[in-house]
Amino acid sequence: MTKLIVGLGNPGEEHLEDRHNAGFWFVDALAKELGARFESEKRFSGKVAKAKWEGEDLFLLKPNTYMNLSGQAVGALARFHHIAPKDILVIQDELDLKPGTARIKLGGGTGGHNGLKDIQAHLGTPDYWRLRLGIGHPRDLAGDGRAMEVADYVLRRPLKAEQSQIVASIESGLKILPLFLKGDSQAAMLELHSKVH
């Protein structure tokens, strides 16, 4: 069973609504659903919420470091609680998926995502689960051919229409989570990936 769910984002009020914080939005929604509260834990460089799922401990984590140092928090908590990489689910924003789309997979490349690169370095393997929440790519916005820089794009709030689509993809992810957590990743993937957007 998945024992650790990590939401990726940047800390601080100024980043709350950034596209890059979609992972934080997901774990905040999940904590609310589970009635769990995030508490700052210095030893894990992050905010941690602990919940029970089918009688098992389930940890939710929001690293307090900036995105490119996310592995510090993930590695520390996983080592302390003896959580194997295959029992970790990382929620990330994904440039290569349109807003409203969510995809789940085990392992694979980092797609240039600095948070994933650092997690892989700290875990020593790419073999952990990822739930990818589509935020779209700045090139899709540029009708005049001048795309916004990726860094500027991810560090800005989504347009209103995109925001509601991202929220819908978070809801889709939360809906398949019970299947995923009980170990039926194939059924969870099938349900999530067959959604038409």
How does this model look, in words?
The protein is α/β, with parallel strands linked by helices and about 200 residues long. The chain has one domain: Rossmann fold, CATH 3.40.50.1470. It has seven helices and seven strands; from the N terminus they run βαβββαββαβαααα. A seven-stranded mixed β-sheet has the order 2-3-4-1-5-7-6, with helices on both faces. Helix 1 packs across helix 6, helix 2 packs parallel to helix 3 and helix 6 packs antiparallel against helix 7. The protein is globular, with a radius of gyration of 16 Å.
Task: Give the SSE map.
Blueprint: E1 4-7, H1 22-34, E2 39-41, E3 46-53, E4 56-63, H2 70-80, E5 88-94, E6 102-106, H3 114-123, E7 129-134, H4 138-141, H5 150-154, H6 160-181, H7 185-193
Helix pairs in contact: 1-6, 2-3, 6-7
Report the order of strands and helices: EHEEEHEEHEHHHH
Please, what is the oligomeric state?
single chain
What's the pLDDT, averaged over the residues?
A: 93
Taken as a percent bin, the fraction of beta residues is 15-25%
Instruction: Give the CATH topology.
Output: Rossmann fold
The total of beta strands comes to: 7
Q: Segments where pLDDT lies below 50 for 5+ residues?
A: none
Give me the side-by-side strand order of the main sheet: 2-3-4-1-5-7-6
The coarse overall form would be globular
Q: What gap, in angstroms, lies between the N and C termini?
A: 29 Å
**CATH fourth-tier homologous superfamily:** Peptidyl-tRNA hydrolase
In terms of structural class, how would the helical and strand content be classed? alpha/beta
CATH class: Alpha Beta
Question: In angstroms, what is the radius of gyration?
Answer: 16 Å
Number of domains: 1
Secondary structure: helix percent: 25-40%
Number of helices, where a helix is a run of at least 4 consecutive DSSP H or I residues: 7
CATH architecture: 3-Layer(aba) Sandwich
Largest sheet: 7 strands, mixed
Catalytic activity: an N-acyl-L-alpha-aminoacyl-tRNA + H2O = an N-acyl-L-amino acid + a tRNA + H(+)
InterPro entries: Pept_tRNA_hydro, Pept_tRNA_hydro_CS, Pept_tRNA_hydro_sf
Organism: Polynucleobacter meluiroseus
Function: Catalyzes the release of premature peptidyl moieties from peptidyl-tRNA molecules trapped in stalled 50S ribosomal subunits, and thus maintains levels of free tRNAs and 50S ribosomes.
